[in-house]
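Hi R.,

Here's the chain you asked about this morning:
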Amino acid sequence: MEYDEEISSILARAASRQSEQTQEVDYHKYIVDITSNFAEPEPIVSQGDRILVSRGNLCTITGKAKSYKTFLVSAIVAAFLEDETLSLSGPGGKCLYVDTEQAASHVNKVQRRIYRLCGWDFDSPSTNLIILSLRELNVQNRLKTTIAAIEDLHPDMVIIDGIRDLVNDFNSIEESLRVVGIFMALSTQQNCAIITVLHQNKADENARGHLGSEICNKSETVLQVKKQENVAVISPVYCRNRDIEEFSFRIDETGLPVPCDCPKVEKKRQDVEDLMKKVMFGSSEWKKKDLIDSIMRANKKGDKTARRAIDSALEMGIIKKNEAEIYYLAELWETGDLPY
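And here is the predicted structure, written out as tokens:
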């Protein structure tokens, strides 16, 4: 009961502040003057002359669970703070790293990984890297603590590893708009870059829920991390600047990410795509059982092989499924040419 009252009080205060802002708003200061000279935002992390994220902007990293997203973030932080890592680099400065998911002992492992990538001594804590572990807090206090740290520390770059844990419901339009709006405002007011990390849906490669849609829409860059044969492949989903070139890394024997060649997956993708187009020909929608039966007839294989083919096709984005568990070819999904 007390918890519900606290939430109600927070929402009431927020509504009151929003009302005051609406009454006092002056649009004149937001006019874009054609005669003004606007400097290009300063890149915070780059890949050569390609900008991953700049001051005053957001960047989102998405991927399935255990796809090496946090290893990528560790490399991005090291590239910003100290030296080129995985073809990425930055000007240096202060980084605030906020972890919302892991216990402090696991967050410390990430911290040590970053120190090793930077070549820093564990016995000499750097004031340029501040790491928070907020798992033990409730949602409201995680968000309040993150905001307070950003406003107090004035970092050049902020990592939020687990933005999903800053909302109660990642499918709430109201909550998603609110939390994304907060970080858009903070990135502008503090003149910093904010990089968020968010899981993808289990059934497809979209970032989770309304929160995922909103944060991706507002990001300067959206990167996808896919784990293939123990190699992380990083590819751009969206870039407002020149597209980041796809790159990949593996984890070496010391537990650090090191660059490597991308695995050869094109033939496998083509084989799966050819199979799905063949077995789904003649109908725009399929129940899973019918699709399994069709694959078994076409492939002369068993039930498990058919299910693996469906899982691979979903992961590769070749087919999609809706909430009613009806399957479609992705090209029909994207054109909107669906029965419902």
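One quick note: Residues 266-335 form a domain with the Arc Repressor Mutant, subunit A fold (CATH 1.10.10.10).

Cheers,
M.
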